[in-house]
């Protein structure tokens, strides 16, 4: 997959994977790419942040919407009321078992019927941990490559990945953007504008 | 982010709504910790009997619950 991406775009891809693992998700979703893009140093990241799509806000929405992760869907407030700090439990178990084990267990716990078809084997592997692509990821990456081809470049850059992610109709991205008071098309147009060469 | 809740107030309220939700969440938390621990123990070569003894349940119970998942080779 990485041969289709520029170095910067490849770095976004790796960051997205790391976010998925850190959040304890058993899949690599378009929302993890959005989170990585919101923190990106490239102009696409700056456009997102200038319109309120900041890493903090995206992450809060992912956590609120996905309810996945090994501990992410537990009732934090109720547990806090009896003196259990879910973040402390997560930190302690991560230290003992490693993030990969937590993600694997999350996959067992949250294995929903038919959410990810076993035929959909596309995904990413790092340190031996395979994360299947979640809803929207294949669509976004395909669309990024089309954007790159339309711009007559071989490798998709951060701009193309961003526009691919913003065009996604599946998964959490549309809901996250709507809850942040914006939309994929609006942000995509702003990014295209930013990258348009001056005449 | 929500503002930090007053923990002592929550606990002292003895509101069954919060209390029961806490019990349910605690049960879910304990289930997940059990999966992590059992899988690790199996990886380290522990027998179902050894695991069951620590959990305070029978070997059959722990095998029925975890055998299919943790029995597979990693």
Description:
The complex is a heterodimer of chains A (199) and B (74). Chain A has helices at residues 7-22, 30-38, 43-50, 55-66, 76-81, 86-97, 99-109, 137-150, 158-166, 173-179, 184-195, and strands spanning 123-126, 129-132. Chain A is mainly alpha-helical and 199 residues long. Chain A has one domain: Clp, N-terminal domain (Double Clp-N motif). Chain A has a two-stranded antiparallel sheet with strand order 1-2. In chain A, helix 6 (86-97) crosses helix 7 and helix 8 packs across helix 9 (158-166). Mean pLDDT of chain A is 84; it is low at 112-119. Chain B is mostly helical and 74 residues long. In chain B, 74% of the residues lie in helices and 0% in strands. Chain B contains 4 helices and no strands. Chain B has helices at 7-13, 16-43, 48-55, 59-70. Chain B is elongated, with a radius of gyration of 17 Å. The N and C termini of chain B lie far apart (38 Å). Classes of the chains: A mainly alpha (199), B mainly alpha (74). The interface between A and B is medium-sized, with 24 and 22 residues.
How many extended strands of chain A?
2
Shape of chain B: elongated
Radius of gyration of chain A: 17 Å
- How much strand of chain A? under 5%
In whole angstroms, the N-to-C terminal distance of chain A is: 34 Å
Residues in helix, % of chain B: over 70%
* β-strand amount of chain B: under 5%
Overall structural class of chain B, as computed from helix and strand content, comes to mainly alpha
The chain-level structural class of chain A is: mainly alpha
Order of helices and strands of chain A: HHHHHHHEEHHHH
CATH domain fold name of chain A: Double Clp-N motif
Shape of chain A: globular
Which value, in Å, is the CA radius of gyration of chain B?
17 Å
**Major β-sheet of chain A, in short?**
2 strands, antiparallel
Instruction: Tell me the strand order in the biggest sheet of chain A.
Output: 1-2
Sequence of secondary-structure elements of chain B:
HHHH
Regions of chain A with pLDDT < 50 over 5+ consecutive residues?
112-119
């Amino acid at each position: 997959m990485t041969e289709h991406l520029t170095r910067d775009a490849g770095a976004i891809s790796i960051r997205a994977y790391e976010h998925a693992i850190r959040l304890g998700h058993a899949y690599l979703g378009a929302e993890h790419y959005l989170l990585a893009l919101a923190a990106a140093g490239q102009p696409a990241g700056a456009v997102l942040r200038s319109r309120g799509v900041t890493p903090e806000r995206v992450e809060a929405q992912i956590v609120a919407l996905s309810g996945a992760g090994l501990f992410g869907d537990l009732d934090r407030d109720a547990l806090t009321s009896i003196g259990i700090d879910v973040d402390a439990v997560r930190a302690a178990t991560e230290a003992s078992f490693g993030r990969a084990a937590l993600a694997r267990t999350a996959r067992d716990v949250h294995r929903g019927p038919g959410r990810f078809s076993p035929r959909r084997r596309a995904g990413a592997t790092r340190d031996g941990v395979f994360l299947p692509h979640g809803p929207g990821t294949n669509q976004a990456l395909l669309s990024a490559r089309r954007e790159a081809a339309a711009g007559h470049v071989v490798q998709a850059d951060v701009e193309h990945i961003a526009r691919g992610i913003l065009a996604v109709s599946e998964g959490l991205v549309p809901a996250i953007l709507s809850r942040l008071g914006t939309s994929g098309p609006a942000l995509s147009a702003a990014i295209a504008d930013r990258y348009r060469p001056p005449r | 982010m929500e503002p930090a809740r007053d923990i002592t107030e929550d606990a002292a309220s003895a509101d069954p709504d919060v209390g029961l939700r806490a019990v349910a969440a605690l049960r879910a938390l304990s289930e997940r910790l059990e999966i992590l621990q059992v899988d690790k123990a199996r990886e380290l070569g522990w027998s179902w009997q050894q695991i069951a003894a620590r959990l305070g349940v029978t070997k059959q119970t722990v095998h029925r619950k975890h055998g299919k998942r943790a029995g597979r080779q990693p």
